[in-house]
Amino acid sequence: MNLAKLKKLIANNYDQQISDHLVSSFLEIEENFVIKKWKPSELNAGHFVEAVRRIIELELFGKYTPFNNKLPHFNDSELQRYERQKGHESFRMLIPRILKAIYNIRNKRGVGHISDISPNEMDATLILYNVKWVLAEIIRLNSNLKPEETQQIINKIVERDIQLLWKDGEVKRILNPNILAKDKVLVLLYDESPMPAEKIRGIIEYKNSYNFKKILKGLHSDRLIEFDDDNICKISPTGITEAEKILQKSAT
User: Fold this and answer.
1) pTM for the full model?
2) Residues 152 and 65 grouped into a single domain
3) What is the spatial distance between Cα 109 and Cα 97, in angstroms, rounded to a whole number?
4) Which of 17, 105, 163, 175 is deepest in the core (most CB within 10 A)?
5) Could you read off the pLDDT of 197-223 as tens digits, one per residue?
6) CA atoms within 13 A on the CB side of 64
7) Residues 135 and 196 in one domain
8) 45, 31, 36: which is closest to 104 by C-alpha?
9) DSSP H or E run through 107
């Protein structure tokens, strides 16, 4: 996705402040989802909802609540207020109800408040794809591009995320063969740590055992992993941070 083009499309129809809030919250949801940080992913959905509600206000009422002011309570009466206005049904009915579902999950499923349900992949997945639909619908209605150009942008937004690490039973593979071997090691250890060095080498299919040991020692020297005398590898806190950067980069 061309982020500059996306931001420009939104800013041209609304303003730069709305565009910045909307796109940044969307990216935070997506990036945290990719690295399996369910709670931050779901929390950032609240920022996305607030940005889109301001778009709805502009579309239906001609002005929006400033970002330094609180929005009206997001309840049934607010949904009815949207519905009573003149305007496209997506802004009056469809988008508000999807936003309300996102908002309720964020607030009532152990994300914004304590609950018996902890943030989890199932809830985060629902939020991610609802957020993608809302963003795609906003672009569809306001792009002023040719239909085929608009469709290309929408397809890019709603396409299924391809995880860098693929697991199928006993099979585990890094899907991008072009990343460095040391980065592959960190991604594998981010998913499962500790892990025997030979198991890692087998997964990434690194043929030269001597050179592979040099890679592990280099990661150990950089304090990204612990590589002990028993040839067991364990990722360190700094290694976790580096692995998350790799996963984020692969998702953009």
Assistant:
1) 0.67
2) yes
3) 18
4) 105
5) 999 999 999 999 999 999 999 999 999
6) 17
7) no
8) 45
9) helix 95-108
Peptide bond before residue 147 is cis, with ω within 30 degrees of 0: no
Q: How many CB atoms lie within 10 A of CB 244?
A: 19
For residue 204, the enclosing domain spans: 165-251
234 pairs with which residues across the strands?
Answer: 226
Token look-up 């940044």 returns 24
- The amino acid at residue 15 is D
Which residues 6+ apart lie within 8 Å of 99 measured at CB? 49, 52, 53, 74, 134
Counting as low any pLDDT under 70, the low residues of the chain are 1-2, 109-119, 158-163, 169, 251-252
What pLDDT does 113 receive?
45
Single residue among 138, 158, 178 that ends a domain in this structure: 158
Which of 137, 158, 179 is at the close of a domain?
158
Instruction: Convert the pLDDT of each residue in 14-31 to its tens digit.
Output: 999 999 999 999 888 887
**Residue 101 and residue 171 in one domain:** no
What are the distances in angstroms from CA 166 to CA 169, 170, 172, 222?
10, 11, 6, 27
